[in-house]
Write a structure and sequence with these properties.
The protein is mainly alpha-helical and 171 residues long. It is built from eight helices and three strands, in the order H-H-E-H-H-E-E-H-H-H-H. Strand 2 and strand 3 form a beta hairpin. The chain is elongated and about 75 Å long. The two termini are 34 Å apart.
């Protein structure tokens, strides 16, 4: 069972030509892939046909047809040998949010049995984590700039204000 309480699906999905071009069953199957109890923070996980067919209530041949359609549409990737599924574009809507989240996601990526999908998701993860680090650096720089400006504007402020600013800077 997934430790995730939720997964993000952008409202833009309802304007996506790829998604709107799918039959209803394929749409449901894609949403299932992005939200089922097996999905994790890497967007790559092991999913056997039996679990999915049981969860969705589809016949196996319909399930296979839908999966093939979603692969051709570039919405998922699948490793048949290891039964690992990757939700394409996962990190666009589910990026690592902090260092702990990033470390946990990396541990999950390292456990992916499919070398092809592991390498593929690692590349997307590296890009998403680089963006996270840049956001964190900008946030810290903005905070440091604010503190510096306050020190210039209020150079004789009491030690209480100074201690408060220093505590803020350490966060």
């Amino acid at each position: 069972m997934s430790a995730r309480d939720f997964s993000k699906i952008s409202p833009a999905i309802w304007r996506s030509r790829r998604f709107l071009g799918l039959e209803t069953d394929a749409k449901l199957q894609f949403i299932y892939y992005a939200t089922n109890e097996h999905v994790n923070s890497s967007g790559v996980y092991r999913l056997t046909d039996g679990y999915a067919v049981d969860d969705l209530g589809f016949q196996l041949d319909k399930y296979h047809q839908n999966r093939a359609i979603l692969i051709r549409a570039g919405m998922i990737d699948f490793d048949y040998e290891h039964s690992f599924l990757m939700v394409e574009g996962w990190f666009k809507h589910n990026p690592p949010m902090n260092g702990s989240h990033s470390a946990g996601t990396l541990r999950l990526i390292e456990k992916v049995k499919s070398e092809r999908l592991r390498e593929k998701v690692a590349s997307f993860f590296a890009e998403a984590d680089t963006l996270r680090l840049a956001r964190e650096a900008k946030k810290k720089a903005d905070r440091d700039l604010k503190i510096a400006r306050e020190r210039i504007e209020f150079p004789d402020a009491g030690s209480h204000l100074q201690r408060s600013l220093e505590r803020t800077a350490r966060r």
